[in-house]
Amino acid sequence: MTRRLEVDTSEAQVEGRAASIEIRHVNHRFGANVVAVSDASLKINAGEFVSIVGPSGCGKTTILNLIAGLIDQQDGQIAVAGTSPKAGRADVAYMLARDCLFPWRTAIDNVMLGGEFRGVPAIRRRERAQELLKHVGLAGFENHYPKALSHGMRQRVALARTFSLESPVLLMDEPFGALDAQTKMQLEDVLLDLWSEERRTVLFITHDLAEAVMLSDRVVVMSARPGRILVDIPISLPRPRSVRALQKDPAFHAIYAQVWSWLEQALGVPQTLAEEVTQ
Predict the structure, then answer these.
(1) What pLDDT score does 273 carry?
(2) What is the largest CA-CA distance in the chain?
(3) Which of 179, 211, 214, 230 has the most CB atoms in a 10 Å sphere around its CB?
(4) How far is the C-alpha of 127 from the C-alpha of 130, rounded, in Å?
(5) What value does the mean pLDDT take over residues 227-244?
């Protein structure tokens, strides 16, 4: 039986913070027979880091693409900073699972690309790109082309490129999903540092439950298709956080078990078995 839990976020956490992203009763269908998202409602306050997890094909990326304005809205309401989604808007940046670097541009030129499209002065975008490449651990690699960079290094460039855009809303679709465990942990810490400095609004898609818990203020669990929001779990771990330190934190493991039990339900495992995970 599907249960729904409303967000239990303290007044201190949300006081004075306007909704940055809000979707209400959104449904989306592909073709005549595939219902990707069913009656989804979600509110993300300005400066929050929210992750969505769920079974493959449950509509996580569809929700991200609707918010980004990359696919047309069919049913329900969606607002980003109080206005309807639109592709290419300057207040939204989107980071994909693949780095999507231009092979003919150096690392620093790839980071500067978004600012170039948006008309940011050359000096300003170069200074910002240099600062971010240093922050993600690529100082000295500014003039290297993608073919000379490892997969993890290319994803660091992509992360720097995303943060180079002065967009208050960041949409991130499994940006570290294809990385090895060690590189992923390193980049998760880098992302935490960048986010902590600027506190942008982040909606993050991942299949990695540990990643979702470690990074987020809230973790949203979706059901198998048709994707419904089953639960919205506040993450009470204090900030600032260290991915490595959290590995040894009993509170982290307790929250992880809670999220896992809901994902078990989303996958159709009987609730009695899911409850055993938290014992």
Answers:
(1) 41
(2) 60
(3) 214
(4) 5
(5) 94
